[in-house]
Design a protein that fits this description.
seven-stranded mixed beta sheet, Aspartate Aminotransferase, domain 2, about 500 residues, about 40% helix, disordered N terminus, 3 domains, Aspartate Aminotransferase, domain 1, 15 strands
Length: about 500
Amino acid sequence: MSAPASDRTASPLIFELGQEGRATQYVEHGKPLRSFMPEGVLRDDLPLPDNTELDVVRHYTRLSQRTFGIDVGFYPLGSCTMKHNPKVNDALAGVREFAELHPFTPDDLSQGALQVMYELERSFCSLFGMAAFSLNPAAGAQAELAALLIAKKYFRERGETQRDKVIVPDTAHGTNPASAAMCGFKVISLKSDARGRVDPAEIRTVVGPDTAVCMMTNPNTLGLFEERIHEIADAVHEAGGLMYYDGANANALMGNTRPGDMGFDLMHLNTHKTFTIPHGGGGAGHGPLGVAGHLVEYLPTPYVVREGDRFRLDFDRPKSIGPVRSFWSNFAHVVRALAYLYANGAEGLTKVSQYAVLNANYMRVKVAEFLETPYPEICRHEFVASAQQLKKETGVRALDIAKALLDRGYMAPTIYFPLIVPECLMIEPTETESKETLDGFVAALRDIIETAKTNPQELLDAPVTTVVGRVDETRAARQPDLRWRPPR
């Protein structure tokens, strides 16, 4: 049987059903869909699923139980801020008027959505000291790329095409040098000092007429605040370069200080880290890009502007680098982020960062009782520990500690990053975890260190309670198996 003629006119794409409810062919605008597609991707028959709702629910519930997530347990992933995503944000993003708004809807019929975008952009400007933000980039790394494209165009228009160097400290995030290289810049790596900071004197030895951008985050990946950031910014600006702020660690400073006040000209935010957007799992990210006043005209298009009590998307920006992704942005994330901002307010956002710093320092002092902490001073949102001495004494590495944490019900922290700390564990508790959770994690970590000294083989075999056990990291890196296979 085929769909009624009335259905054919209502939708350009339908399917015809054969015996037993199997789809025999798809029809688009009266022509078989097969005629539009290569032979190699076609099937002779496309059976429709025949499962009960209960079977489907159990299947996906079992899948969810085979992995680890923030709703299951503590996720202290350093430099990634794996904090709780309030469910009310998801509910607001799912409101029909937002969720079903078509991206081609005219501005006159999208006023509510455009106002949401405008208010988030203005809120970010106030919170981080920038003149304007583009919500266009789909992730922090894409915002980095866009920022460097802005810098490149800015210098080209000024006739300073010799500026082809980007300075990246060794405490920066790994995407920074990658983004610079993708834009055709030469990367100058800068070593941090014994205190884990950038020395302004070192900056002055590498800046010059060929300096384009200095990329930094503050606090850095060691969790340490660059207290001489104004001197660093002055050195770069005096040489004619721009300062770029990697906002991955913004959860440490909201409401307490602003990158714009530190002297940064460009920056990005990771709303999936700081503003409780769902993080990871291959889902859509969001990386708002902020700029100082002299770079506003280069921001990606489209840009939301307000005219009286109306809003519109502005595509007519001659100096713009152009769009960096389709349509406006990941709009559901815009809704989530604005909901989080409004729910907390200025005072609440300040407390978010203060509690994140408090939790990190509480845990740092506890962990220092049994594991080396290379920078024993007050940190910001995260801190680093090192298993270097433990490895020398027992053969147990940071990797083994991470695997053993999985057996104890905790996600492992970031390990072996930043590279300047041997056998590094980078731990970020965030502000959303309770004291009981932090104490439980510290107790598990203490137990692992004690086990390393009495029965190291137990840790070398970990994990044993997870669906997937210990893998051969070397073989996995050299011979990655990217094909899905059903479980045996």
